[in-house]
Amino acid sequence: MDADLVRRQVRVGETCAFVIAAGEFQELAERAIRAARADIEAYAAGAPRFLSALEPLPVDMAAPPVVRRMAAAALLAGVGPMAAVAGAIAQEAVEALVASGCRHAVVDNGGDVVLRIDRPVTIGVFTGDSPVRDVALRCAPRPGIFSVCTSSGTVGHSLSFGRADAALVVAEGGALADAMATALGNRVAEPSGEAVARAIRETPAEWVEGMLVVAGEHLGTGGSLPPLVRAPVDWRLASRG
Fold first, then answer.
1. 84 DSSP 8-state letter
2. What's 6-234's CATH class?
3. What does the pLDDT average to over 188-215?
4. Where along the chain do its domains lie?
């Protein structure tokens, strides 16, 4: 990692995120993460279905912006709003950093990564026990914020109804990428090449930049992904809840 960047873990409740940015921005990132979680928790206290729904829910237009963003992403993906929570929180943090002048920020919230980068970044894809290993995306700098979010039916604690070892989506917003990754993973009914191809084909391409699915020994891609490269993927460096 470049000498001017600091990698810091932020734990708030169930959120366990890693923030990579210059040291002067680290406290701001933590405050943004805490504020986003507080807004979500306050809203859910009066609308408990928000936490458990497995389908899109309407929300009050007076709801906090992060809640409305989650609900909008869930509607497009056809999933419950909490499917977007990790990406939405990461997005709030990166937006706060960019608004304060940060030029390079990466927030990895349990495998849901939101970035605004001024130098290349390699993002490894953890695939659990799949024989498809050490796959990574080499992300080039771009002027705006973008997101790389991953869901899994075999790895971690995320709720998935599919059998994907990794279902990854690249999209502009963290909430949208997170919700779409969940929906993509849900469509992988079995670890077969046909199931992987069908899941990618059935994901609305107009909402995502690119997709990658690993299920068993099968890997499939769709849309426009950053270049795939070989890189050791160390699960100990991943953020975990």
1. G
2. alpha beta
3. 95
4. 6-234
